[in-house]
Amino acid sequence: MESMKKPWQHQTEKKVEKKVEKKPEVDTYKAYKDNLAQLEKLFTYGEDFRRFYGDRGVSAIKKAYDICKRDLDQLMKVDSVKCPGDDVSAVKQAINVIVDVVLTNKITPFIRDTSLHMGRLIFNWNDEVAKVGDIRRLAITAQRVAVGYMSILEAIEVQRKLLEMLRKELRNKPPAYELSKHLLKTLDED
């Protein structure tokens, strides 16, 4: 009877061992450090931060940055990090501020960069430490809206250039166009 088992039954009985790598990969670590460096560079523009996010927003974003950095740095040394509810609330407040600014203001390169880099940091922190669905969605929203807005602006610029090129071409009106118009009128009359 043992040999009469179905193939899928054998698979469920086998124990599968996963190897969990404790050390971050070099590329992941480099990307993380690059992201932190970009955020620290953005923090040097204090006047822009206050103009777009207000004093409370700046405070919330910097606090979230410190929490995320602390926990992710600690996670590289140990297996898991405990996340108190106050930290989750602080990070959620910061990402709410970022999403609010992204949705209600014209997206400048400064706002785009802030939302992309903080969104990425908060997203990674949430996936590794907090695991809160709302924070994940908000971080993705901040990044996608900023990227989508900039993509739309780029598409508009390309369309403007193409339209200008078309207008220049139509001003010249090569004889073939006039001939085609005459031919179409003739065919239409028939």
* Low-confidence segments: 5-20
For the residues shown, what is the average pLDDT?
Answer: 83
Strand count, sense and barrel status of the largest sheet are: none
Q: Which structural class do the helices and strands define?
A: mainly alpha
What proportion of the residues form beta strands (DSSP E)? under 5%
Shape: elongated
The helix fraction, in percent, is over 70%
Whole-angstrom Rg: 27 Å
Distance between the termini: 85 Å
Oligomer classification = single chain
Give the SSE string: HHHHHHH
DSSP strand tally: 0
Count of DSSP H/I helices: 7
Can you describe what's shown?
The chain is mostly helical and 190 residues long. The chain has a domain of 126 residues. It is 80% helix and 0% strand. It contains seven helices and no strands. It is elongated and about 85 Å long. The termini are far apart. About 8% of the residues have low confidence.
SSE blueprint and pairings:
Elements: H1 7-13, H2 26-43, H3 46-75, H4 85-104, H5 109-130, H6 133-172, H7 175-189
Task: Summarize the entry for a quick read.
Helix content is 80%, strand content 0%.
Kindly list the characteristics that best describe this protein:
0% strand; mainly alpha
